Amino acid sequence: MAPKLLRRAVEALSTFKIETPSWGFADTGTRFGKFFQDAAAIDTNDKLADAGQVHALTGCCPTVAVHVLWDFQPGQDPKAVAKLARKHGVKIGAINPNLFQDQDYKWGSFGHNDPAVRARALKHCTDSVALMSGTGSEYLSLWFADGTNYPGQGSIRDRKKFFEDSLRALHAKLGPKQTMLVEYKPFEPAFYATDIADWGMAFLLAKKAGPRAKVLVDTGHHYVAQNIEQIVAWLLDEDMLGGFHFNDRRYADDDLTLGSIDPYQVFRIFHEIHAFAADRGKAPKIAYMVDQCHNEKPKIEAMIQTVVMAQELFAKAALVDHEALRRAQAKNNVVDAELLLKQAFFTDVAPALAAWRKAQKLPADPLAEHRRSGYEKTAAADRRARRKALGLGHGGSFA
Ligand code: PSV
Ligand code: MN
User: Fold this and answer.
1) Ligand 1, atom 9: nearest CA belongs to which residue?
2) Number of structural domains found in the chain
3) Mutation pick for ligand 1 pocket among 70, 245, 247, 398 (CB with most ligand atoms within 8 Å)
């Protein structure tokens, strides 16, 4: 690697952090069933310990996203959860309210036609803001399963209005340093009209809610042919990109390991972010998060793979020569413009990762080090015994 490129890639790596999801360490499956893993986390302590292991090895995952229903006991002091995280060398990241599992939400939460259910959903979200304050979290990450399954089932415009009102009321509860992220998804579980189905709807609702509401892009939440980096560029330009849920997919919301199917797409997303930063002279504030569930791969291994892939692609995208790209664009030189992206994408950034890890006193190969550590084996034995003692079957927080 040329010294100038090496420097640029190392610099990019030193700014890059990505949050792991607590639910990615527990048993998960599809709606057809779960295949259990002995080493899967049983409780929040296990999940935070696993996230701590990923951070200790990769050095770039200091925070962990938590799901309120799955990670907090009712009435639990959030400070105790923050303390638990600290014990494992991490901090609590985004707080995810759960508005999809309770029977009350059969017909929706913020989009429900019954004001009492909407009030209940809002109360859960404002309680979640209190959890943010108690844990020191900066982000409230909102995803709604709301929608309808059949034409005519609900008034699309009424539901839109209900969302506008509830999101505005929720925004009013945020402190000055707290941000709410509005996530969109085209379908599942609603199969006719999801209330927040795409980035335009999330954008509009966030704008109407208030200045501390931004859009969250889950890379799995698009139709297959959609140009995600274009959405990212537009959101950046409007100062409305709040964060990402990274995962890869082949068909729908497959939650596969990042870059396992299409690493070039992730590169193109990062390229838009670096290009924006180059134009503005300042990196935008973005919450990079992983949202993946690994049903077959060992969970910590899959998370390490994901994090390392994200680092690699972020570093590669930092190598694009923006001035040369602007020159090529000005001349409508399509071939050279595209080549500038391709050259960066195909540059081997392993020397930069090695240099950065060495400077951070991190293992040269996080995955190999994890395997050498015996963590998986110890966790499996411990968790197998605890499941037996507690009379628990398997079962994670999310199916
Ligand atoms: C929904 O598919 C989603 O992407 C939301 O972010 C949820 O919080 C998460 O998955 C649950 O796994
Ligand atoms: Mn998501």
Assistant:
1) 291
2) 1
3) 245
Domain of 135 in residue numbering reads as 3-384
User: In CATH, what number is assigned to the domain containing residue 85?
Assistant: 3.20.20.150
Does the residue 393 lie in any domain? Answer: no
Q: Is residue 399 part of a domain?
A: no
Low-confidence ranges of the chain (pLDDT < 70): 393-399
pLDDT computed for residue 394 by the predictor: 61
Q: Write a three-state SS string for the chain.
A: CCHHHHHHHHHHHHHCCCEEEHHHHECCEECCEECCCCCCECCHHHHHHHHHHHHHHHCCCCEEEEEHHHHCCCCCCHHHHHHHHHHCCCEEEEEECCCCCCHHHHHCCCCCCCHHHHHHHHHHHHHHHHHHHHHCCCEEEECCCCEECCCCCCCHHHHHHHHHHHHHHHHCCCCCCCEEEEECCCCCCCCCEECCCCHHHHHHHHHHHCCCEEEEEECCCCCCCCCHHHHHHHHHHCCCEEEEEECECCCCCCCECCCCCCHHHHHHHHHHHHHHHHHHCCCCCCEEEECCCCCCCCHHHHHHHHHHHHHHHHHHHCCCCHHHHHHHHHCCCHHHHHHHHHHHHCCCCHHHHHHHHHHCCCCCCHHHHHHHHCHHHHHHHHHHHHHHHCCCCCCCCCC
The closest ligand to the CA of 293 turns out to be 1
Q: Is residue 390 part of a domain?
A: no
Atom index in ligand 1 nearest the CA of residue 183 equals 6
Q: Identify whether 392 is part of a domain.
A: no
Supply the pLDDT for residue 338. 98
Nearest CA to ligand 1 atom 3: 143
pLDDT of residue 208: 98
pLDDT, residue 391, reads 86
